[in-house]
Write a structure and sequence with these properties.
- Helix content is about 45%, strand content about 25%.
- It has about 130 residues and is α+β, with helices and mostly antiparallel strands.
- The chain has one domain (about 1-130).
- The protein has a 5-stranded antiparallel beta sheet with strand order 3-2-1-4-5, with no helix packed on it.
- Helix 2 runs antiparallel to helix 3 (about 90-115).
């Protein structure tokens, strides 16, 4: 996936890039409380503040990240409910156990995210800088 964005900040060859949200994002409704129509992403590269750049993130990496972010916590919740149902009779305590297991896997997701953030193949990459035309 290649997208164009505007460099908001450049600090130590780390660009903070602002992208317009994709059209499909508006249909999701998960960010309905947010009035912002941009997404900020950190990209390795060198460009001036205000420059328009093209950024690439391979599609299979995006799919992999989606699985990590959404499926792992769901697996934690379901596993917690299944395991907890064998020794917890109270439904409220069972739900609490499932939520704790989901929380533990959210911590695992954060650890995985921190690890993948250091690997170049998982980072968005700067393809080109497009000069601003007056």
């Amino acid at each position: 996936m290649i997208r164009k964005g505007i460099v908001v900040k450049n600090e130590n060859n780390r660009l903070l890039v602002c992208f317009e949200k994709l059209e499909m994002c508006s249909k999701c409704g998960q960010c309905s409380n947010s009035r912002r129509q941009e997404a900020l992403v950190s990209v390795v590269g060198d460009a001036k503040k205000g420059s328009v750049i093209s950024v690439e993130m391979p599609d299979h990496r995006i799919l992999g990240l989606s699985v990590i972010m959404y499926v792992l916590p769901l697996i934690g919740l379901i596993a917690g409910l299944l395991i907890g149902s064998t020794f917890i009779q109270n439904e409220l305590k069972l739900l609490g156990f499932g939520l704790v297991c989901m929380g533990l896997l959210l911590i695992v997701v954060k650890i995985i995210d921190n690890r993948l953030r250091t690997l170049p193949k998982w980072q968005p990459r700067l393809i080109e800088t497009i000069d601003n035309q007056p």
